[in-house]
Input
Amino acid sequence: MAINTEKSQLGVGSGNILSWDTIDKLKEADTKAMVKPLETKIQDNLTKQKDLTAITTLLSTFKGSVSNLTGDNTYLKRDANATGSNSVSVSVSAGVAEQNMNLSVQQLASQDSFQSKTFGSRTESVFDTDVSFGISIGGKDYVINADSTTTLEQLAEKINEATEGKVQAKILNVGGDEPFRMIIQSAQTGEANKIDFYSITSGTNSNASHTSTDSTLNALGFYFDKVSASGVGGAQTNEDSHGNQIQRLTLKKPDDLSEDEKKNAGSQISTAQDAKFKYNGIDITRSSNTIDDLILGVNLTLNKVDKDGETTNVNITQSTEGIMEDIKAMVESYNSLMNNINEATKYDSETGLAGTFQGVREITSITTELNKIINGVSKDGKSLADFGITLTKDGLLTLDSSILNDMINTKFDEFKNFFSSETKFTNVTAVGDKKIEWNEDIKGKLIINGVEIDINIKKDFTDKDGKILTNGEAEKAKKNALLKAIANASGLSDISASFDKDGKLVLKGSGGTDIEIKGNSNFLTKLGLKEQKLDGKTEIIGGFFKGLNDTLNGLIGSEGSLTAYEESLTSSHKSLTASKEQRQKELDAKYTTMAEKWSQYDTIIAKLEAQMNTVNSMIEAANNANK
Output
């Protein structure tokens, strides 16, 4: 039988002795004794987790500042200062050797660029008949097909599409009664991007729909002479790369135009040419005004041609920009960290108030560990004080900027040697145990560091024209094919391949990379290799702050003491929460059962009281009857 335990009913039979009010008071006392202590511990745990996050964040910030001063990148930065005519702009990458250079620009690289005659509208038809003509650039011929309905704008689109973007045609509004001109120019600068035009006298290939003459492009205002083997003026024809019979053309010079032709002629705006300049007195030629292949890590931009006697002098030096800011950031981050730790570990004997981590060894030991490094002396007798950084009696760092600035500007090598570390690599090399025999097919999978490389070098090796190579020429080509396959394998940028003087294959790692070779044993034997693993090594050496960096890793690294402490707090929180929930569940069950029993007792008491009242009534009635 279900028992109704509504608060409104419990206690009615017992005169509110067995009531909900009594149960609530008993449950509150049990909760205070059994659950509240766990809630307090959970809250303390959450506070510690929150405060620990603040400390680890400050440690990470401090570590970042230390790493900036410890790592190589800070000391590989370079400045490029230019004086003189400033005809050249220079930018440099980190690590470029410090040097001076003298630059003088004789000629800027330029595009081939032509402008048509003027037109009244973009949508004006250009040709009276259907025509096909050719444009040559970069040693390749392109055919443009047009008809009598082709507009100026459509012709520009056809040129752009046909020439694969190597030639750019666009329409400009230049103003006036007939404001539109077509501009035809090479996409890239340099002599190799010279634009040539030709007419198609006989279209023997399907890509040329029609023919043209040397006067076809008069419609654009371009007047040409025919090009012969000896130059201009002949009538010799030849073939383009598509097999069309053609006549190569050259634009007439303005002085050679007739008076009628001059009235609305197009013209050549600029001529394709290479850049020419002197680098430390050496003549250099490039197709572009932007040069990034002269000196590794140095980018030159040619801006203008120098006058006689003018030069640009460039001085590439160590960059100290940002180092002062890095030092200030380190000092500030250290002081913020120490202030936070001091607050978290303090104890007031008068009030009895303690910080979150008062007495917690993982936190209280941080200051000692860091100060041991901060107060240390390098192997050559230098300390932070020599660079204007001192530790106060309060355990905070102060910075004398004048001392630091003087050290950076006058004794940079001492500064660098004190703060920075050097990364050294032990590289490994796998050398074949025999010369590769090329008189058979070399086919199989070579696996280097998990990367599969498909090798398929035929015994009868052919060149690009299908000719079978023989003797030393064949062996050289096969070697190059094998080296190319390894070099082009994705994910092997730190592995290089070569052959030694005895014809043995050599695999070499860089940057401390391991070399692991796998594959079919028979195939590896053909290459003179075997399955093996060679371990490279990377080691960071020197630098006063290396010890500080290592200490910080020992605190907040993946296996650091604070990382472990954080994990223990998280685990403890889960355990405390589970215990609290279990105790609460037990209390709820206990008092639910109590309420059910009390409800039963309440009913029994009510019945007994009713029976007692009946007996009393009978006794009273009997007494009254006997009077």
About this structure: The first strand starts at residue 78 and ends at 84. Residues 222 and 266 are 5 Å apart (CA to CA). Confidence is low (pLDDT under 50) at residues 1-8, 230-235.
